[in-house]
Amino acid sequence: MAYTLPANALALAPMVGLSHRALRALVEEFGGCDLHYTEMSSAPGYISGAPYDAWFLDALPAPERTVLQFYGPDAPRLGEAVAKSNALPALGVDVNFGCSAPHIVASGGGVAWMKDPAGAAGLVKAARDNLAPGRTLSAKTRAGYEDDYGKLLEFARALEEAGLDWLVLHPRTKAQKFKRSPKRELAKRLSEDLGIPVLLNGDVRRFEDWAHAREAYAPAGVMLGREAARRPWVFALFRGLERDAGFELSVELEATALRFLDLVEEYLPPEFHETRAKRFFHYYCDNVRFAHHFRTAVMNAAGLAGVRVAVRDYFREVPADRIKLENS
Ligand SMILES: Cc1cc2nc3c(=O)[nH]c(=O)nc-3n(C[C@H](O)[C@H](O)[C@H](O)COP(=O)(O)O)c2cc1C
Description:
By secondary structure, the chain is of the alpha/beta class. Helix content is 46%, strand content 16%. Flavin mononucleotide (FMN) binds next to α10.
């Protein structure tokens, strides 16, 4: 049965150290989202049995809505990784053409492929040829090395022709990393020029951002990254506000923080506990009045137990922050 992207899809972005089973479980407890992405995994690492891929590629608790993301330096090894991943529960596979982290680019992965549309298309074709029937194939990309729509279109068309089901665009150039505003009109132009759906990603934080992005650029869907770590209830909130402009969500910040830590303990290996907790709280602390104070306490804490103490201490000191009323 062929999969169809839900209309007006809301997706959780792939994020190293953040888009793991514990965050997905928390998002699902608030009501979920249409599509999840795992953090990226190295194709060569996965086929050679790298130790942590069982966690990176764990698509639970919603494998039927979760895409496994790979990056790779060549088509044969990406194809082999995709073939191996067919045995894992998941909706499908995504190829990372957007990561601009220096070690990924240096290894010939991520955004480095945007300089080589034919090579990137070769990766997509290898993925398609090795993907089990019924599994989806997407790619996530940036605007490119430079601000040049012609080159972006050439790249995206090559991927489409190689067998992509949909494309996710984070419309910043490689050099911009997270600076400057994403150039969202590129998603609109790509949607018009391609025959496949285009999802828009980048800096969508408030309901107004989402509503504006949809109205102005009409993407097939919107992907949220950092805001989902800041507010794991953001998808539920957006859907609520879409139904009823007066919708409000009362969030228990302390209980949610502690629940996240329980999920980290339950679903991630002990070596990941402290780093994953700290990466999440880097964003989550923005929900409270004394964010800097809270963040410093968490970052100085030792182990999951220390982070739990920092959470309890903060809300004991500032009990008024325990409940946050969300309406935008
Ligand atoms: C900590 C972190 C890790 C990321 N890891 C990945 C990744 O593994 N794969 C990927 O395609 N993008 C990755 N990204 C980029 C995000 O998926 C997304 O494109 C970017 O954060 C912009 O969306 P946002 O403004 O909603 O956060 C990462 C971003 C962050 C902040």
